[in-house]
């Protein structure tokens, strides 16, 4: 069920997503720093989503008298300089999407809860497709030189030179992703949330170690 934000007691940190997770890990100072970091990350993420949506829209939705269907492929960096009218059209779509999001949030804050659920499902679906694609790619022959000049880079087995970075990657995935805190907020006690967080953190590390071992 959607969360009734109006009924939440915002004076209690347990009801706040990022505060709840950060308080479990390090108390109030960590919660303040985490909220600042999360706000910056969400702003950057929202801008990224708006740009991607606008790139798709300007390619498939023509503006009468200005752009044509499939004319503006803004996924290529060269198009920004070569087709300035397409760049302007993309900015128009960014403005439209921004206005729609702001109006939706102003009318109903519970849309945040639904948005997080959708984004979480889409994220895990995209990750599944990526993992399957990588697995299929590892089983194929290198690129045909007649098709591509790229060379396949084979990672030596048992190469753990980047292992220290895994802790940062796992912490970023579990701490900053809105879907993680949405799930942890619904835990009945801090003890349960800590167990879930620790299990998820270790699971991410194990997956990276397996990839580093077998690739």
Summarize it.
With 215 residues, this protein is mostly helical. The protein has helices at residues 17-60, 78-82, 84-107, 111-138, 163-176, 178-185, 190-214. It has a domain at 8-107.
Give an overview of the whole structure.
The protein is mostly helical and 215 residues long. It has a domain at 8-107. The chain is built from 7 helices and no strands. It has helices at residues 17-60, 78-82, 84-107, 111-138, 163-176, 178-185, 190-214. Helix 1 packs across helix 6. The radius of gyration is 22 Å and the shape is extended. The model is unreliable at 8-16 (pLDDT under 50). The chain crosses the membrane at residues 38-61, 88-106, 118-138, 166-184, 196-214.
């Amino acid at each position: 069920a959607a969360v009734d934000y109006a009924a939440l007691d915002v004076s209690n940190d347990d009801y706040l997503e990022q505060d709840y997770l950060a308080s479990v890990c390090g108390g109030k100072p960590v919660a303040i720093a985490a909220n600042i970091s999360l706000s910056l990350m969400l702003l950057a993420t929202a801008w990224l989503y708006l740009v991607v949506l606008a790139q798709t829209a300007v390619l498939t939705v023509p503006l009468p008298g200005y752009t044509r269907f499939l004319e503006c492929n803004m996924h290529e960096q060269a198009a920004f300089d070569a087709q300035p009218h397409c760049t302007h059209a993309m900015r128009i779509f960014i403005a439209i999407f921004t206005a729609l999001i702001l109006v939706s949030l102003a009318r109903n804050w519970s849309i945040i809860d639904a948005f997080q659920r959708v984004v979480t499902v889409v994220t895990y679906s995209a990750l599944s497709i990526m993992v399957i694609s990588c697995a299929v790619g590892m089983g194929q022959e290198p690129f045909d030189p007649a098709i591509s000049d790229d060379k396949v880079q084979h990672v030596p087995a048992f190469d753990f030179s980047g292992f220290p970075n895994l802790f940062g990657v796992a912490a970023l995935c579990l701490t900053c992703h809105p879907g993680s805190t949405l799930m942890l907020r619904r835990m009945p006690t801090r003890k349960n949330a800590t167990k879930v967080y620790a299990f998820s953190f270790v699971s991410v590390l194990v997956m990276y170690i397996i990839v580093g071992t077998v690739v």
